[in-house]
């Protein structure tokens, strides 16, 4: 069943109105008609079965029929901070991190980043990343869309360290040193409702300067095993382990 995130101002007690791109998708892409049912989600993460009443390519009005009580969000709040990657790789990270349950996804310029961020295109890029997150949240049946942010430096992330319960730097240096048990220890300390900040390096990995800055700020170096993963693979592997630890293991 199709799911749509709808701004609060488009809701009333018994109806919800979808406009613009969402209305176009319902009418032109999905070819729905009055009587069809979709799921609409408000900004607070409340979802409702909604039956199409008035259908127009520019505006669709639905009747709210039943509020749902399912909760598909992770019990922990994960922020993924990724050193700048090539656009297609970072888009993949945004999509998969959203599917895995991250609440915030941000990128930052790193010493070894291959690409350089063009501030003139920043707004357009952020809008595209937000659209990818929105679509991935709908596909994975989430109730919230991750916040898409941009940090001006690694230092701006380390300055926020005190707002998190857990700080991890996913480190190829730790992997090369054979410190593979750090992840198990770090996972064992994570509890429900806590906040965790995960920092991942770019294609070229972290510099010594960045690694030292993070450890001095209290980040725990975490290895994902003896094999060095690609920059875009590491976030997905880490999130999968966190999902298992929080939701799936008994």
From TrEMBL:
It holds the Pfam family Methyltrans_RNA. It comes from the Bacteria. Its EC number is 2.1.1.193. It is found in: Cytoplasm. GO terms for cellular component: cytoplasm. InterPro entries: Alpha/beta_knot_MTases (IPR029028), PUA-like_sf (IPR015947), RsmE (IPR006700), RsmE_MTase_dom (IPR046886), RsmE_PUA-like (IPR046887), tRNA_m1G_MTases_N (IPR029026). CDD domains: RsmE-like. It is an enzyme of class 2 (transferase). Residues 73-242 form the Ribosomal RNA small subunit methyltransferase E methyltransferase domain. It catalyses: uridine(1498) in 16S rRNA + S-adenosyl-L-methionine = N(3)-methyluridine(1498) in 16S rRNA + S-adenosyl-L-homocysteine + H(+). Residues 18-64 form the Ribosomal RNA small subunit methyltransferase E PUA-like domain. One of its GO terms (biological process) is rRNA base methylation. Keywords: Cytoplasm, Methyltransferase, rRNA processing, S-adenosyl-L-methionine, Transferase. One of its GO terms (molecular function) is rRNA (uridine-N3-)-methyltransferase activity. Specifically methylates the N3 position of the uracil ring of uridine 1498 (m3U1498) in 16S rRNA. Acts on the fully assembled 30S ribosomal subunit. Belongs to the RNA methyltransferase RsmE family. This is Ribosomal RNA small subunit methyltransferase E. It comes from Natribacillus halophilus. The lineage of its organism: Bacteria, Bacillati, Bacillota, Bacilli, Bacillales.
